[in-house]
Design brief:
Elements (H helix, E strand, L loop, with lengths): L1 H32 L3 H22 L3 H19 L32 H18 L11 H26 L13 H13 L1
Helix pairs in contact: 2-4, 3-4, 3-5
Pfam family, one: Rer1
Function: Involved in the retrieval of endoplasmic reticulum membrane proteins from the early Golgi compartment.
InterPro entries: Rer1
């Protein structure tokens, strides 16, 4: 009896070692792509285009595409939302400034950009693989799904934009902020010398 357990453990050891090595290699590749946001998003756009061409060519898998769209919408809401929502959790952590006199606090997302990208890319890969199995091709009238998704997107974005306006935050960095303090002081001193 002891030999049976030993053989089973000996057979699993190489598999676990290979799985661990593959996981380390995959994580290494992910870590290498972290600073290259533009290239990552271009790759995801190419993957999304391949998926769209596949769905167009097959003329099916609309329910898979609808599920993918709902999942991406959910990820987008997490990406645009602050980590600490002032409506839900009045805590002692970093809060969004509510008045002009409040000190600047950086916007911290609920879903960071890298995880947002990774989740979307993984979702497109899974949806693409699903298009090769006919059991996922449920016959539906796709224009209704598209209309429903557009209405859902519009209502969700309206709510998110109203939240942004109410708490006065912008979830995007628009370059480095430049202050005109030194420039205006230099120009005014230059005009005095004339």
């Amino acid at each position: 009896m002891e030999g049976v357990g030993g053989d089973g453990a000996a057979a699993e050891a190489p598999l676990n070692k290979w799985r661990h090595e593959a996981s380390k290699l995959f994580q290494f590749c992910l870590d290498k792509t972290t600073p290259h946001a533009v290239y990552r998003w271009v790759g995801t756009a190419v993957l999304a285009s391949i998926y769209a061409l596949r769905v167009y060519h097959v003329q099916g898998f609309y329910i898979v595409t609808y599920g993918l769209g709902i999942y991406i919408l959910n990820l987008l809401i997490g990406f645009l939302s602050p980590l600490v929502d002032p409506e839900l959790d009045p805590s002692d952590g970093p809060l969004l400034p509510t008045k002009d006199s409040d000190e600047f606090k950086p916007f911290i997302r609920r879903l960071p950009e890298f995880k947002f990208w990774y989740s979307i890319t993984k979702a497109f890969c899974i949806a693409f693989v699903m298009t090769f199995f006919s059991m996922f091709d449920v016959p539906v009238f796709w224009p209704i799904l598209l209309c429903y998704w557009i209405v859902l997107f519009a209502l969700t974005m309206k709510r998110q934009i109203l939240h942004m306006i109410k708490y006065k935050y912008l979830p995007f960095n628009i370059g480095k902020q430049r202050y005109g303090g030194k420039k205006s002081a230099a120009s005014s001193s230059g005009s005095r010398g004339d």
